[in-house]
């Protein structure tokens, strides 16, 4: 079981209370799809994803980016039980969507870059350490139902 100190809890809830999901979610997902283009293969129903400009202006990508952030929100609200919270989402990504779990880490990295750019100097090493720990737990929980 992962332990969270009071300061880690307040850092994570503090970041999420100020994040604009409609901005950060789409930006992070777009970055992932552009930087790691093999991740595009899972979004075949999303329409035109032909180049970076098309990805950035695709409304399905934007909506899905927001959805991912709402997914993270559930982990923030259940910090002591992230694995159980994500059990169903993990089954969905593995058995139905067949998403290679390595991709969770790639999206996590894009989320980190996007959040760091937003926070600027507030993204201190201590904040980064806590954020990285949080996403590592999320990535591990999402990968848990894979065999
Ligand atoms: C769907 C969260 C990573 C591909 C979803 C949904 C959520 C979610 C909340 C909606 C589930 C539902 O409708 O019940 C997350 C989180 C991730 C993550 C929190 C990691 C931080 C990824 C990655 C990929 C991916 C890395 C592929 C590269 C998909 C696809 C869908 C989906 C294809 C279905 C989209 C649709 O057809 O509407 N994800 N996801 N996810 N996810 Fe993820």
From TrEMBL:
<dbReference type="InterPro" id="IPR000971">
    <property type="entry name" value="Globin"/>
</dbReference>
<keyword id="KW-0408">Iron</keyword>
<dbReference type="GO" id="GO:0004601">
    <property type="term" value="F:peroxidase activity"/>
</dbReference>
<keyword id="KW-0349">Heme</keyword>
<dbReference type="InterPro" id="IPR012292">
    <property type="entry name" value="Globin/Proto"/>
</dbReference>
<dbReference type="Pfam" id="PF00042">
    <property type="entry name" value="Globin"/>
</dbReference>
<feature type="domain" description="Globin">
    <location>
        <begin position="3"/>
        <end position="147"/>
    </location>
</feature>
<protein>
    <recommendedName>
        <fullName>Globin domain-containing protein</fullName>
    </recommendedName>
</protein>
<keyword id="KW-0479">Metal-binding</keyword>
<dbReference type="GO" id="GO:0043177">
    <property type="term" value="F:organic acid binding"/>
</dbReference>
<dbReference type="InterPro" id="IPR009050">
    <property type="entry name" value="Globin-like_sf"/>
</dbReference>
<dbReference type="InterPro" id="IPR050056">
    <property type="entry name" value="Hemoglobin_oxygen_transport"/>
</dbReference>
<dbReference type="GO" id="GO:0019825">
    <property type="term" value="F:oxygen binding"/>
</dbReference>
<dbReference type="GO" id="GO:0031720">
    <property type="term" value="F:haptoglobin binding"/>
</dbReference>
<dbReference type="GO" id="GO:0072562">
    <property type="term" value="C:blood microparticle"/>
</dbReference>
<dbReference type="InterPro" id="IPR002337">
    <property type="entry name" value="Hemoglobin_b"/>
</dbReference>
<keyword id="KW-0561">Oxygen transport</keyword>
<dbReference type="GO" id="GO:0020037">
    <property type="term" value="F:heme binding"/>
</dbReference>
<comment type="similarity">
    <text>Belongs to the globin family.</text>
</comment>
<dbReference type="GO" id="GO:0042744">
    <property type="term" value="P:hydrogen peroxide catabolic process"/>
</dbReference>
<dbReference type="GO" id="GO:0005833">
    <property type="term" value="C:hemoglobin complex"/>
</dbReference>
<dbReference type="GO" id="GO:0046872">
    <property type="term" value="F:metal ion binding"/>
</dbReference>
<dbReference type="GO" id="GO:0031838">
    <property type="term" value="C:haptoglobin-hemoglobin complex"/>
</dbReference>
<dbReference type="GO" id="GO:0005344">
    <property type="term" value="F:oxygen carrier activity"/>
</dbReference>
<keyword id="KW-0813">Transport</keyword>
């Amino acid at each position: 079981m992962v332990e969270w100190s009071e300061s880690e809890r307040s850092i994570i809830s503090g970041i999420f209370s100020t994040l604009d999901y409609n901005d950060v979610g789409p930006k992070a997902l777009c970055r992932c799809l552009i930087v790691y283009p093999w991740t595009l293969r899972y979004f075949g129903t999303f329409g035109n994803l032909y180049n970076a400009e098309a990805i950035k202006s695709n409304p399905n990508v934007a909506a899905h980016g927001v959805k991912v952030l709402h997914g993270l929100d559930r982990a923030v609200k259940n910090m002591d039980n992230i694995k159980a919270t994500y059990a169903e989402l993990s089954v969905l990504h593995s058995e139905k969507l067949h998403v290679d779990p390595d991709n969770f880490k790639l999206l996590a990295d894009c989320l980190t870059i996007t959040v760091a750019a937003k926070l600027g100097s507030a993204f201190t090493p201590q904040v980064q350490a806590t954020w990285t720990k949080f996403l590592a737990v999320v990535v591990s929980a999402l990968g848990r139902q894979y065999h």
